[in-house]
TrEMBL record:
Residues 1-19 form the signal peptide. Residues 150-164 have a biased composition (Basic residues). Residues 133-173 are annotated as: Disordered. This is LTXXQ motif family protein. The lineage of its organism: Bacteria, Pseudomonadati, Pseudomonadota, Betaproteobacteria, Burkholderiales. Residues 133-149 have a biased composition (Basic and acidic residues). It comes from the Bacteria. The keyword Transferase does not apply. Keywords: Signal.
Length: 173
């Protein structure tokens, strides 16, 4: 269960702000210029703001697109606040029962799904306003190569690779 929580936490840390992307070669990661993040809500807030700044730059948002961008960025911020609060609640109760643990996990998953829906709804008008070149940038920026290859971000194997594994291979959790 802890492994699942860690995977969920890393996946949702950006509040479902689509796929994590890799900065272009030669670009300094946002975390390199920033001081070490604070814990809890401040950490999530900082990561969301870094992501917003990165995406604004990467997508080359024009002044005309700022209203749509602001709506999208505000949804990212709200989602980040919601997820940070849920994770803080979860971490504040490390010795809870299995039932309470499952209920909290369900609340996090539901909030993630709701937040993702809101994010898609906010992104659609922005994406529609983008120029063809900006749409290409967005398509590349939000593309998650490991999904296309059937891998999960946490290093899982695709079904094809699992089937091709030797019969004597030990399965590790």
């Amino acid at each position: 269960m802890k492994k699942t929580l860690v995977i969920l936490a890393s996946t949702l840390a950006m509040s479902g702000a689509f796929a994590q992307t890799t900065a272009p070669a030669g670009a300094a990661p946002a975390s390199a210029a920033a001081p070490a993040p604070a814990s809890g809500a401040a950490h999530y807030e900082q990561r969301v703001e870094q992501r917003i700044t990165y995406l604004h730059t990467q997508l080359k948002i024009t002044p005309e697109q700022e209203p749509q961008w602001k709506t999208f960025a505000d949804v990212m911020r709200t989602n980040g606040e919601t997820m940070a609060g849920l994770y803080e609640q979860r971490m504040a109760n490390p010795n809870q029962s299995a039932l309470d643990d499952m209920k909290q996990y369900s609340a996090i998953a539901t909030a993630h799904a709701d937040g993702t829906k809101k994010l898609v709804d906010a992104f659609e008008p922005l994406y529609t306003s983008l120029s063809p070149d900006q749409k290409k940038l967005a398509d590349t920026t939000f593309h998650h190569p490991s999904r296309a290859e059937g891998h999960h971000k946490h290093g899982g194997k695709s079904k094809a690779k699992k089937k091709a594994a030797p019969a004597d291979e030990t399965v590790k959790p």
